[in-house]
């Protein structure tokens, strides 16, 4: 449900242009602000092939209340989530789960779910800020 976790490596990783540390958020998200999601997920529907090219999309963060009102009655959104929306036809899809939602260089969210693929419903992310104490404790920070 939350798609967030921390793991330890047995050996050190050599940092490079492609491998580095993520910045954790220092404050909670602001409604109506912009953020960028990226991923290798499908682009047309959940059953189409994944992308060969890393895709990215700028999204608008919407309020919990707006998110709830846009979702079908069976969909559950929690206050520990971030919701985004741009327009029908734009959003995360199958294969993007676990990917980052980034704002000003900080990983503020983790792709967690949504209804189908960009069918006019908000995309749902785990709000990393809400789990900072867990992440810091698990990572021994």
Brief rundown of the structure:
By secondary structure, the chain is mainly beta. The chain is about 10% helix and about 25% strand.
What's the helix-strand series?
EEHEEEEH
- DSSP strand count: 6
CATH class: Mainly Beta
Structural class comes to mainly beta
User: Strand order across the biggest sheet?
Assistant: 1-2-3-6-5-4
Low-confidence stretches: none
* Corresponding CATH superfamily: Trypsin-like serine proteases
What number is the mean pLDDT?
Answer: 91
CATH topology: Thrombin, subunit H
CATH architecture: Beta Barrel
Number of H/I helices: 2
List the keywords.
mainly beta, 2 helices, Peptidase_S1_PA_chymotrypsin, 26% strand, hydrolase, 141 residues, single chain, 10% helix, Thrombin, subunit H
Task: Give the helix/strand layout.
Blueprint: E1 34-39, E2 55-62, H1 64-70, E3 81-85, E4 100-103, E5 106-114, E6 123-127, H2 132-138
Antiparallel strand pairs: 1-2, 1-4, 2-3, 3-6, 4-5, 5-6
Structure in words:
This protein is mainly β and about 140 residues long. It has one domain: Trypsin-like serine proteases (Thrombin, subunit H). About 10% of the residues lie in helices and about 25% in strands. The protein is built from two helices and six strands, in the order ββαββββα. Strands 1-2-3-6-5-4 form a six-stranded antiparallel barrel. The longest helix is centred in the middle third of the chain and has 7 residues, at about 65-70. The chain is globular and about 45 Å long.
């Amino acid at each position: 449900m939350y798609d967030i976790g921390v793991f330890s490596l047995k050996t050190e990783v050599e940092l490079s242009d492609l491998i580095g540390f993520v910045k954790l958020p220092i404050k909670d998200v602001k409604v109506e602000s912009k953020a960028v999601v990226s991923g290798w997920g499908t682009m047309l529907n959940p059953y189409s092939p994944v992308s060969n090219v890393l895709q990215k999309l700028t999204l608008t963060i919407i309020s919990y209340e707006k998110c709830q009102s846009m979702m079908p009655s069976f969909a559950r959104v929690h206050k520990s989530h971030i919701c985004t929306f741009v327009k029908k036809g734009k959003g995360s899809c199958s294969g993007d789960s676990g990917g980052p939602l980034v704002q000003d260089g900080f990983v503020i969210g983790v792709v967690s779910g949504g209804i189908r693929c960009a069918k006019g419903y908000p995309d749902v992310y785990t709000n990393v800020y809400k789990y900072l104490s867990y992440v810091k404790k698990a990572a021994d920070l």
